[in-house]
Amino acid sequence: MKVVRGAINIPANTKEEIQKGTQELFNAVLQEARIKPHQINYLIVSSTPDITAFYPCAAIRNLGYDTLPMLCVQEMDVEGSLPLTIRFLLTAHGKNRRFFCYLRDTSRLRREKSL
Question: What domains lie within the chain, and their CATH numbers?
Answer without folding.
Answer: 2-113 (3.30.1330.40)
